[in-house]
Amino acid sequence: MAKAFFRLQKFLRRTQFLLFFLTAAYLMAGSLLLLQRTRLVIQQGSRGTSANQALPVLEGMAGVGIADPRTLQNPRPSPRLLVGTDTMQEPDVDQQHGPRWLVSRNLELRQLRRRWFHRFISDQEPMQTAGFKAMKHTAAHQGTYVGCFSDDSRERTLKGAVFYDLRKMTVSHCQEACAERAYTYAGLAYGAECYCGNTLPATASKPEECNSECKGEKGSVCGGVNRLSVYRVEELRAGARRRRNVIYRGCFRAPENLTDTFPASLIQPNLTVEMCSEFCSKKEFPLAVIRWRECYCGFPTGRFSLHNGADRQLCSGTHNASSAAEGKYCLVYQTPVQDTRCTDRKFLTTKSKVFVALSSFPGAGNTWARHLIEHATGYYTGSYYFDGALYNKGFKGEKDHWRSRRTVCVKTHESGKTEIEMFDSAILLIRNPFKSLMAEFNRKYAGHLGYATDRNWKSKEWPDFVNSYASWWASHVLDWLRYGKHLLVIHYEDLKQNLIPKLREMVEFLNMTVTEDRLLCVENNRDGNFKRSGAKQKDFEPFTQEMKDLINGYILTVDEALRGRNFTGLPREYVPR
After folding, report:
1. 444: phi then psi, degrees, rounded to nearest 5
2. Other C-beta atoms lying within 10 Å of the C-beta of residue 530
3. Which pTM value belongs to this model?
4. Cα–Cα distance between 48 and 449 in angstroms, integer?
5. Would you place residue 374 in the very low, low, confident or very high pLDDT band (cuts 50, 70, 90)?
6. Which of 76, 266, 276, 507 has the fewest beta carbons closer than 10 A?
7. Are 305 and 371 in a shared domain?
8. Domain check: are 381 and 441 in the same one?
9. Model confidence at 38: pLDDT above 50
10. Which residues belong to any copy of the WSC domain (predicted)?
């Protein structure tokens, strides 16, 4: 009897362990499924605040503005937009037929934070020794591997150009980028950073110290912590030369003393644009200046700012000594070399005392403004969200917690009293709503650098998008005007047309100082890595007359609100459409 009881007890213990194991396996499988579904929702979702946050004002509400959805008792009545004393009927949009990809703000923020956490954990996993042994410098890279070198961030040798791709960096990608810009050497660090130059670093390191695996190529070495894996790419330059762009900047009056203005020069009897550009590229200068047989290399400076161009005819004889207004004018070309005087950035060493927002409606140029601010100040900007595409391209503030105060300002598309009053001050960036809506629609269907297809524009998603997002454009501005504590209003169109004065105004608002040469460097790199390229959609009018009437009403409301707060009204180009 005792023996049978002992066997039963042993069986129950095993069963208990088995049940525990099965329960744990079930929970793990459920967690993985949840994470997979979360990633799918994030890819389909909208960034920032849901359009449901911005609904037009209902009849009978006092004042000019747009009501908070929390104050609406009945979501189904037809909303009206108040424009002075006139009213305009907005089309009623049945919520059950709304865009499938709109999700609530709180749900999306939780998903963004979850994705940030898991990516952060994966990025922190150290490379194992066994993995390092498997890594090699393959012949497929084409360039010749030179060795592992020490990299000093304060005084870099390979400083001709800098590229980041914290997800897909490969040795070949770095080599091709450097070769296309006429550099001799390509160096990789931290598994994701690419540096170009024409001079080898001075200090060699042990080969095993370059132990970071390339983010986009398993088994390949991409430097290490303060270590560069350096390749010679000169043999690639002949093939890349066909793809390199030398951009004509214009005809300008030559400075009085060219040798003092430009650090390098060359005199050649039969000087050509290609010869001068090649010479200046090897010297790692972004400008090639030609006057007669003389070639000068340098940067835009206070002496030679490229702001006041001259008639091209005044430079028509710069290649011979008998004309060109006695040498008073010169031709200027942009070489493939990047102006790196303003590319180094870092986090604030001490926490900022003032919590500043960089607020805009999606598609209004927030990423471009961040690029300008970071390069002008030398400090990273933060974000209320986490955008992996931006982080991978060098916006390292994306992974920093938005309330860390280690960044000069924080990107946000949020509106509403609570979200706005968290900030001490804000730069409010406003763009033409017609352009903003198209830019955000392009981003949703083709990413930061692509264009939506004709099929996307002709689908029912586009009119749903306009009806949902147009009111958000207005409510975003009106909420910040109402609840913002200290505002600097910047119009995207003014920033684009008068970059240096407006950028200086933004930098001063951030309580930062910047030199004139650094601002000129920013102007020379004004587009950054997020200018849309490729097959642009054909000229067409995506807005129906009904859409135009709706948006024009919002424009009038916002313009009146800005002037009521003693800000400059919207640019004239906004209306009429």
Report:
1. -65, -35
2. 17
3. 0.70
4. 19
5. very high
6. 76
7. no
8. yes
9. no
10. 142-234, 245-342
Q: 519 and 392: one domain?
A: yes
Q: How far apart are CA 354 and CA 512, in angstroms?
A: 12
Q: Which of 348, 362, 405, 409 is nearest to 381 (CA)?
A: 409
Give one word for 568, left, alpha or beta, with left for phi > 0 and alpha for psi -120 to 50.
beta
pLDDT of amino acid 276 = 94
Q: Residue 572 in contact with residue 494, Cβ under 8 Å?
A: no
Token digits for 326? Answer: 């006695």
Residue labelled with tokens 């587009």: 527
Angle between helices 499-509 and 366-377 (to 10 degrees): 70
Both structure tokens of 132: 């390092």
The DSSP code for 547 is H
CA 99 to chain CA centroid, nearest Å: 26
Report d(CA 556, CA 569) in Å as an integer. Answer: 10
State the Cα–Cα distance between residues 215 and 220, nearest whole angstrom.
Answer: 9
Residue at 107 is within a domain:
no
Range of the domain at 192: 145-232
pLDDT in tens, 58-85: 333 333 333 333 333 333 333 333 333 3
- Top-confidence residue, 353 or 54: 353
Handedness of CA 526, 251, 517, 345 (dihedral sign): positive
Contact 383, 409 (CB under 8 A): no
Residue with tokens 């033409």, as numbered in its chain: 432
